[in-house]
Design brief:
Length: 275
């Protein structure tokens, strides 16, 4: 068998250095997408993450579960969102913070990256809000005699009650875990690799209660809608609290993703000639 043929059937996952190269190549493809296609792809990601959030809340709808079991299994349920994003293909704002590797190598500019981030953030929000509408109309919140709806409001209320500092640092921690999961996904050779690789980092961030801006695009509007309709304590979720959380969590997520991407860029790309 020729050397080229051996490369084609290489079963091993990509090495960290190869993943860093792939992250830059992926970033080039992202900035080349037409805005309309990028927006629709981002809507898919927003909806996918919302589906993971819905699954998480269904599990939380049983208040008799012990804390540790609830957090662990609920976190695994939430993994559905990133599994769909990475395996089905879509544009997720938090994962796109890894585009900074290509910027650091001067393969894309600030303008192209900023444009992508803006389109994807808005697309994620649109997709999450569409999912909120569908999930509400499907009556998912009524499951377990309304226990799921109570859980949805409780999750949202807990998020808007956080201090700005807590939201920011929880946002950093969240996207460190998310981008490490995406990094694993970049290195995977098969769908099974991606799914298994995602589970531990994503379930860990969910179990720890970190703040993911795209997930919160589902949790907070869903909680606000149900709270307005009388689920949970009156006034537990507010529009102002929602806006503050999303803004600060977004900033924290960018920092967290930058820490992951730039660390690997420094290790494997800094000081090397551009290809």
């Amino acid at each position: 068998m020729a050397a080229d043929d051996l490369k084609l059937v290489k079963p091993d996952a990509l090495s960290p250095a190869e993943i860093t190269d792939k992250a830059e190549t992926v970033a080039l493809g992202k900035v080349a997408m037409k805005p309309a296609k990028c927006f629709v792809s981002a809507m898919l990601a927003g909806a996918f993450i919302a589906f993971g959030g819905m699954y998480f809340c269904i599990f939380l709808g049983d208040p008799t579960m012990p804390f540790a079991a609830q957090r662990m299994v609920g976190g695994i349920c939430f993994c559905l969102g990133l599994v769909l994003v990475l395996c089905c293909g879509s544009e997720l704002f938090t994962g796109n913070s890894l585009m900074l590797t290509a910027k650091a190598s001067k393969r894309i500019g600030w303008g192209d990256m900023g444009k992508n981030w803006a389109i994807v953030w808005l697309g994620n929000l649109a997709g999450a809000l569409l999912a909120v509408s569908l999930i509400y109309l499907a009556g998912v919140w009524k499951l377990n005699a309304g226990g799921v709806g109570e859980a949805m409001v409780a999750v949202a209320a807990g998020k808007v009650a956080l201090t700005p500092e807590a939201i920011f640092f929880k946002g950093i921690m969240c996207n460190i875990f998310v981008c490490l999961a995406v990094w694993i996904g970049f290195g995977a050779r098969t769908t099974v690799d991606k799914v298994i690789g995602i589970i531990l980092p994503i379930s860990a961030f969910v179990a720890a209660g970190f703040e993911h801006c795209v997930a919160n695009m589902f949790f907070l509007p869903m909680g606000l809608l149900l709270n307005t309709l009388g689920v949970g304590a009156a006034g537990a979720v507010s529009v102002s609290g929602l806006a503050v959380n999303l803004a600060i969590a977004t900033a924290g997520n960018v920092v967290g993703g930058a820490l992951v991407g730039m660390a690997y860029w420094f290790i494997y790309k800094h000081g090397k000639a551009k290809a």
